[in-house]
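stage 2 :: seqdesign
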């Protein structure tokens, strides 16, 4: 008997973890997840967009528009920053971060400061916005590489049915 050949790649695996992490987000509009991986392909951090620990997500707003303090924007911690803050307590120098959405300028600052050296993203849908143009300028200057994930599949179905194990 030969080994399976239809297993997922490392990129598909870690992006899958980022996408699964995104499912923890309570944001009704945007769910983003991130996964940090060291040089030995070990997960050392994961996060999703949400409120800081201790802030009740039933009390704070989830609106995208309106007066600044009445929207989610001053309160939400992005997935990439959460993954950095939630790391297992190790130095992140030389690690990669997988993220569903290309990081904004604020998360990019944290990525650069943490020592992460590569960003693998799924979507760059805000590429024309100033925040993301600034992010790429900083990444290019800091010598941090970024690339869109290459997946051989469009989707992967997970089953929680016991009979499928």
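stage 2 :: out
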């Amino acid at each position: 008997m030969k080994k399976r050949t239809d297993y997922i790649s490392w990129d598909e695996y870690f992006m899958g973890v980022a996408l699964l992490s995104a499912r923890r987000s309570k944001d009704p509009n945007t769910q983003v997840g991130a996964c940090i991986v060291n040089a030995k392909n070990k997960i050392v951090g994961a996060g999703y967009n949400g409120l800081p620990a201790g802030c009740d997500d039933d009390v704070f707003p989830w609106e995208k528009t309106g007066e600044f303090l009445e929207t989610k924007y001053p309160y939400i911690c992005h997935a990439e920053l959460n993954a950095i803050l939630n790391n297992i307590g190790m130095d992140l120098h030389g690690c990669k971060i997988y993220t569903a959405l290309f990081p904004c300028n604020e998360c990019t600052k944290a990525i650069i400061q943490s020592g992460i050296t590569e960003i693998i993203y799924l979507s760059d849908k805000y590429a024309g916005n100033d925040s993301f143009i600034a992010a790429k300028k900083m990444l290019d200057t800091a010598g941090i590489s970024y690339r869109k994930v290459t997946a051989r599949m469009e989707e992967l179905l997970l089953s929680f049915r016991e009979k499928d194990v």
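stage 3 :: structure notes
- The chain has a mean pLDDT of 96.
- The helical segments are 10-22, 79-85, 105-114, 130-142.
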